[in-house]
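Hey, can you fold this?
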Amino acid sequence: MTRFLHIAISLVLLSVVTLPMTAEAQTYPAKPIRVVVGYPPGGGVDYTARLVSQRLSSELGQPIIVENRAGAGGTIGEEFVSRADPDGYTILYAVGSDLASRKFLTRKPTIDPLRDLTPVATVVGSVNCIVVGPSFPAKSFKELVESAKRNPGKLTYGTSGVQSYYYLIGELLKQNGMNMLHVPYKGNAPVVTALIGGEIDIALVNFAAVLPHLNSGKAKALAVLESRRYAGAPDVPTVSEELPAFKAPLSWFGFFGPPGLPQPIVERLNAEVAKALESPEVSSKIGAVHLNILITPPAQLRSFIMDTSDSFSKIIKSANIQPSDG
């Protein structure tokens, strides 16, 4: 009888602890929500954060305030949200792929997306491509691969910086037989300028950054990095069509909460983000800036991020890239 009494008391105590959390989730949201973006206004991260947040505000019935806390490659905003109350009223919009790879690239402590944050929802995946100038001799990706293999270390490729996502893609291409010389720049725009000006042979950038030059004929996309052809440029092959072992980690943006964010709130936000992304108003604008909508159910978020992290880890270890002090 004493044992049953202890069990009954434990169940009562458990219900007392979980009741406020459940009730809070049922009434959520009851006040404005703050979405923290770790990048300046005007870029692709900020644009998609505001686009989705505007639709979310209508769905949730509360104002959503987008707050830019830019600096240190997004880490200032990430650290701020990691210390916020886990009540669903302070949410981070971040480059999830950077969160998944950063711990392998620096000796400094980093924000772990699974330990220091709570994954809430994926939003978009960047469409990335391999681009050459109009005078470059290779007119197809197959020809580019053949040229790189015949001339190891002689072709130059530009990226948005040392240890950037595109730099890691360059290392992955190298592991697949394309040994090229890396030339780092500070962002995608300078990479495209260098390509058009003939400073480099190849640019690894996102599709949106180079689109005006593709349309004008000043640049040519030879391949996309995605696992399937991009609907916005169906004639451009994937890298894996020529290099079957090539599998690039996805570059993606998404929402995160502070650690300990209650699961009912995660599920509510995830569902509303999915609805916002599927609305014609939002999906058409995302397509117009050459991004892919990326919807991941709550039960798959952790494994999705772990897979992304594992992919980056393999590239970095195979290339013997040492973490920096920066």
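Oh, and this one too while you're at it.
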Amino acid sequence: MEIVSEPDINSPAEAKTYLKKLQQIIRYLGVSDCDMEKGSMRCEANISLALPNSKKLPDYKIEIKNLNSFKFVENALDYEIKRQKKLLETGKKLTQETWGWDEVKQITFLQRVKETAADYRYFPEPDIPPIRWSDKEIKRIKNLLPELSDNKMKRLVKSYGVSDSQAAILAATREKADYFEEAVKVGKKHGLKAIKIANVIINQRVELKKYLPVALVKLLIKKKTDLITDEKQLSDLVKQVIIANPNAVADYKKGKRAALEFLIGQIQRLAKGKADPKIIREILRKNLK
């Protein structure tokens, strides 16, 4: 299946973000594993530049073929922007061409001059007849689609009280979100709060295939009575983590909430998962002011 986007992506970073989201949606739908290393997802990036103050859209585009990682896409587009800009500024006219990406040399290279549509000699596929769907059939198919990540994130925040950053991590894959919700369902019978389960899954990087949700809940119940609540002991751990992770501290002060969860995870690692999450969160916030 080939997906062609509208030409409304304005930077290599935006292209990378778009592709990651596309991969996530396809995985959520169960259409493909989208493993770029195995070749089940490929990207062909098209790029053209217009000079400043130009009132016309570019009349050419360069296609970079068979990019098999998000990083390659970003790097190749970064390089092409510089290469094309340099040529355009010297007055050179660019044409339709196909280029490749050399990851070792970190440069693009010419493969061939791109043909026009007429040169491709398109013809209908004889083994695939036209498919026409009624509005009723389209509605039925839409109702069969699973909840996708963006909607799932909103629901996790609303239903379980997790933060936006926590919801993004939990809903990163359909498997992780399902695991979390099943663990919450089991934990509710034992008085375990959803936020506690979320913190454990995120901060301790629970191996989903190793522990079933029921087994995780049993483990948490057992650990519940062993929590470290001594504020002096926890303050010492917090200070150690702050000193050891200056980049995460700087990110938090810039407003990146995910950095706080990372620091909490590092504290829990030192405490072997036994630090009272509510207390360390409060101590950490005080120390980061």
